[in-house]
Amino acid sequence: MASVIFNEVTSLYDKAKTNVMIEAASLDAVLDLTLLLPENVRKPLVQAIHGHLDRVLRTQWPRMRDRAAEPNDSDDYTLNAMQALADVDARNGLQAESARRAISHLDDAHQAEVNRLIIAQTRVHPLKWLALFFLAVVVQFALAMHHAQASQSRFLAMLVFTLTVLAYFLTIVAFTPPFGG
User: Angle 109-111-113 (CA atoms, 0-180°, nearest 5)?
Assistant: First the structure.
């Protein structure tokens, strides 16, 4: 049971990390593509992305840590950025292709942001914690009954088991909030 919960928690942590990486890489790719765009498109696009990053760091991350973030907390930077990209001259093939790719990367970044906000709301269900605790108590009771005759071996067996359960609990708790650090 402990390994199942630990697997679930680490999986959520990995999904959260992956979505943060996708969002960052996509926004970085958009910023790289802005170098190929005219100044009248580049400036509002860069401002939209910087505004988004500022909002993520100042508002979303603290709300995610407190598990108060929701998928609709996503801002409208993609709309602002895509409106800026609409001003690209379609006759210039390089700029048009750069704008098309930038829109694709903006969409990837937005989807990763929404996924990140959804993952920030997840947690290990209290019933799983209760089941894990119940199993630990039952095994402790079984160990005590098995070693009822020898008090030193009973104490040692229960101590080893208690430390193992404590290590599982602490590891799960340490990994539970993917955006807590």
Answer: 70
pLDDT in tens, 19-58: 889 999 999 999 999 888 888 888 888 888 898 889 888 8
Asked if residues 21 and 118 have their Cβ atoms less than 8 Å apart, the reply is: no
CA atoms within a 13 Å half-sphere pointing along the CA-CB vector of 45? 29
Residues 6+ apart with CB under 8 A from 89: 38, 95, 96
Taking phi over 0 as left and psi of -120 to 50 as alpha, with beta for the rest, 38 belongs to beta
Q: With DSSP H G I counted as helix, E B as strand and the rest as coil, what are the percentages for the chain, rounded to 5?
A: 80, 0, 20
The count of residues in the chain is 181
CB-based contact 26:113 (threshold 8 Å): no
Whole-Å CA distances, 157 to 133, 140, 160, 161: 18, 9, 5, 6
pLDDT digits (tens, 9 = 90+) for 83-125: 778 778 767 888 888 888 998 998 899 889 888 888 877 766 6
